[in-house]
Amino acid sequence: MTFDPEDTDEDILDEVEVLPDGTLKFFRGKQKGMLFHRYKNKEIYTLIGQKNIISFERTEKGTRIVICR
């Protein structure tokens, strides 16, 4: 699995509504209707489960690569 970097999304703020949990809801543009959530590392561990994660790495650009069983 890959997870996008934990960035701010200032370049798309005019296309999204930020929901209370931090999810981005696109209301215009080519992604209109899409929901996008940037997971924090702790959320990834909770979602997948610590015991299921074999490897958790980060690329130079900040993308997280998680290998799980």
Topology:
Blueprint: E1 2-3, E2 16-18, E3 24-26, E4 35-36, H1 41-48, E5 53-58, E6 64-68
Antiparallel strand pairs: 1-6, 2-3, 3-4, 5-6
Could you walk me through the main structural features you see in this protein, from its secondary elements to its overall organization?
The mean pLDDT is about 90. The protein has one domain. It has one helix at about 40-50, and strands at about 1-5, 15-20, 25, 35, 55-60, 65-69. It is elongated, with a radius of gyration of 14 Å. A hairpin with a 5-residue loop joins strand 5 (about 55-60) and strand 6. The strands form two sheets. Strands 1-6-5 form a three-stranded antiparallel sheet, with no helix packed on it. Strands 2-3-4 form a three-stranded antiparallel sheet, with no helix packed on it. With about 70 residues, the protein is mainly β.
The structural domain count equals: 1
What percent of the residues sit in helical stretches (DSSP H or I)?
10-25%
Listing every helix as H and every strand as E from the N terminus to the C terminus, the arrangement reads: EEEEHEE
Largest sheet: 3 strands, antiparallel
List its salient traits:
69 residues; mainly beta; 3-stranded antiparallel sheet; 12% helix; 30% strand
